[in-house]
Amino acid sequence: MIQHAAQAREKLFARLNPASAVVLYSGKAPHRTLDQYYLYTAQRNFFYLTNLSEPAMILLMLKGEKDTKTFLFIEENTDLIIKWEGARMTKEEAHERSQIPLENIRYVQDFDKVFNQAMNYARSILGTPPKELHLDLYHASFDVQPKAINQAKTIIDNYPELTIKNINEHLAYLRMFKTEDELNELRKAIKHTAVGLNTILKNIQEREYEYQLFADFVHAITFDGSEGCAFDTIAASGKNATVLHYIKNTDTLKKGELILFDLGALHNNYASDISRTYPINGTFTKRQKELYSIVLTVNKEAIEFVKPGVTWKELNDFAKQRLIEETKKIGLIKEDEDIQNYYYHSIGHFLGLDVHDVGLYDLPLQEGMVLTIEPGLYVAEEGIGIRIEDDILVTKNGSLNLSADIPKEIEEIEKIIKR
Question: Which domain holds residue 65?
Answer without folding.
Answer: 2-174
